[in-house]
Design goal:
Largest sheet: 5 strands, parallel
Structural class: alpha/beta
Helix content: 55-70%
Shape: globular
Distance between the termini: 7 Å
Bound molecules: thymidine-5'-diphosphate
CATH topology: Rossmann fold
CATH superfamily: P-loop containing nucleotide triphosphate hydrolases
Oligomer: single chain
Order of helices and strands: EHEHHEHHEHHHEH
Number of domains: 1
Number of strands: 5
Radius of gyration: 16 Å
């Protein structure tokens, strides 16, 4: 087993796709195997990120898409510097619940910002780091909506955003990932256990290379 290289895996998908549960299950399984796992997320993987996440949530209604994007990009820059780079240097398996592609899908395709500009600023904020593997959980709007409502959260982003927005985000993800080679698409209708087994297999194959 090659323990000299850290690997970075990002999890992507619309709200309610099951990403966060998958992240936790993967962390559990990798820990069981005594592997050096670090679970993190965007936004919110650093102190600054926790603050930015709160600001974004509290000001959602009056924040324009450009300002929103730039705050996500600020979170991204800090996250790469404080969390991702050190963990890669420590040869960890890093799983990040969302990364740069979320901005392309949500702010770019979903909120009509210039996709090329977002990609450019993203690559600056990512400081030369790219995920080795992107796991994209693909799910339709109806299924995601049902799951989110079942969670009984107060006012979710599903109620705040329109159906058209979610359609654009899903189509955006499809377009972004059609051009990338390091993406594995997971069917969001699978059970959490099935999703975990498939994703785990992909990660271990990559790590053991
Ligand atoms: P979060 O509670 O983490 O949602 P989830 O568990 O679905 O990831 O909140 C993150 C929200 O921020 C989510 O709706 C996606 C959105 N987001 C963007 O719009 N752009 C971004 O660049 C990122 C990282 C997240």
């Amino acid at each position: 087993m090659n323990k000299n290289n850290g690997i970075l895996i990002s999890l992507e998908g619309i709200d309610g796709c099951g990403k966060t549960l998958l992240a936790k299950n993967l962390e559990l399984e990798l820990k069981k195997q005594n592997l050096p796992i670090l679970l993190t997320k965007q936004p919110g993987g650093t102190q600054l990120g926790i603050g930015l996440r709160k600001i974004l949530q509290e000001n959602k209604d009056q924040t324009c898409p450009m300002a929103e994007y730039l705050l996500f990009a600020a979170d991204r820059a800090q996250h790469i510097k404080n969390v991702i780079k050190p963990a890669l240097n420590e040869n960890k398996i890093i799983i990040s619940d969302r990364m740069a592609d979320s901005s392309v899908a949500y702010q770019g395709y979903g909120k009509d910002l210039d996709v090329e500009k977002i990609k450019y600023i993203n690559s600056w904020a990512m400081q030369g780091i790219k995920p080795n593997l992107i796991l994209y959980i693909k799910i339709n709007i109806e299924t995601a909506k049902k799951r989110i409502f079942a969670r009984n959260e107060e006012l979710t982003s599903f109620e705040k955003e329109t159906e058209i927005f979610w359609r654009k985000v899903i189509d955006g993800y499809s377009e972004i990932f059609a051009k990338k080679k390091n993406v594995y698409i997971l069917d969001g209708k699978m059970t959490p256990n099935q999703l975990t087994q498939i994703a785990l297999d992909k990660i271990l194959t990559l790590y053991n290379k």
